[in-house]
Amino acid sequence: MHGGDYGHEKFFSVLNYAIGSTDSVQERLFGVVSGVCHLERDSFPDDATWERFEALLADNTKRAARGDEGTIEATTSQMSNEEAAKWLQEALSIFTDVAEAYGRANA
Question: Could you tell me how far CA 39 lies from the centroid of its own chain?
Fold first, then answer.
């Protein structure tokens, strides 16, 4: 489960940042999504978790980039605190599924 190991490490790292940071909730969400957006299907334990991850990416990249910013920053910077917090919670929930599968595979 090499992909799962990498996915677990990346999610853990970005969520650790998000929890400990004093950045705005939008900036923390940007950091989380930017840190995991490159993950591929083999980083997720099942299709349902992969589909939730794809939804996270889709909703956090839906605005067009302007200037030097990318689509993630363009999208997350315009979210309300509540919407950004909702997506951070979803990222944590996805990580929980990844971590449980990682724990089973490495038990």
Answer: 9
How many Å apart are CA 1 and CA 99, to the nearest integer? Answer: 12
Q: Within 13 Å of residue 86, how many CA atoms lie on the same side as its CB?
A: 10
Sequence-separated (6 or more) residues with CB below 8 Å from residue 39: 6, 7, 10, 53
pLDDT tens per residue, range 10-52: 999 999 999 999 999 999 999 999 999 999 999 999 999 999 9
For residue 49, give every residue at least 6 positions away whose Cβ sits within 8 Å of its Cβ, in sequence order, or none. 94, 97, 98
44-65 burial string, b = 16+ CB within 10 Å, else e? bbeeebbebbeebbebbbebee
The pLDDT tens digits for 59-88 are 999 999 888 889 999 999 999 999 999 999
